[in-house]
Design goal:
Elements (H helix, E strand, L loop, with lengths): L13 E5 L2 E5 L8 E5 L22 E7 L3 H11 L4 H8 L3 H8 L7 H11 L4 E7 L2 H19 L1
Antiparallel strand pairs: 1-2, 1-3, 4-5
Helix pairs in contact: 2-3
Bound molecules: zinc ion.
Zinc ion binds next to loops.
């Protein structure tokens, strides 16, 4: 361990701020300034949140919005109930007729914003919220990223 930058006699155990400068000093000399942190064996290691140990956190849940599988049937029957042709419905939607045709035959899955529009117009429910556990793969990737970041910082 480095020796105290004030007296040079004892091991530097504390990082203190003395008149605007940061110095590593011993327990005796720390009284000359404001202690920033205690320098232990972990002194040069990154601060607490960055850790290479496996995270003890519970599996993370991710909320996902998905389109219901039977969207095509729902859209078609709701439109027919309203007595609107595909063409008219397309106009109301501000989409091409082929889009409506695609939706009703299941060839074209609506994105969430289109699905929300359809839900409002047809008074049906197309979007489903589901919770999935974040995959192990993602967690591992995150750790690697943090590790690499630490290595870069140390250089
Ligand atoms: Zn000292």
């Amino acid at each position: 361990m480095a020796s105290c930058e004030m007296c040079g006699e004892n091991d530097a155990e504390f990082l203190v701020q003395i008149e605007g400068a940061q110095m590593n000093v011993c327990g005796k000399c720390k009284a000359y300034g404001t202690v920033m942190k205690r320098a232990g064996p972990t002194f040069t290691r990154p601060a607490a949140p960055i850790s290479s140990r496996p995270s003890p956190m519970p599996p993370q849940k991710e909320r996902l919005l998905i389109i219901k599988e039977d969207f095509a049937e729902k859209i078609r029957s709701a439109r027919e109930k309203m007595n609107v042709t595909q063409k008219d419905f397309a106009q109301q939607l501000n989409e091409k007729e082929s889009v409506v045709h695609g939706l009703e035959t299941g060839k074209h899955e609506p994105n969430i914003s289109l699905a929300r529009k359809l839900e409002k117009m047809l008074r049906i429910s197309l979007v489903e919220e589901t919770e999935v556990e974040a995959t192990h793969m993602q967690a591992t990737t995150d750790e690697v990223t943090i590790g690499d970041f630490v290595k870069i910082k140390k250089r």
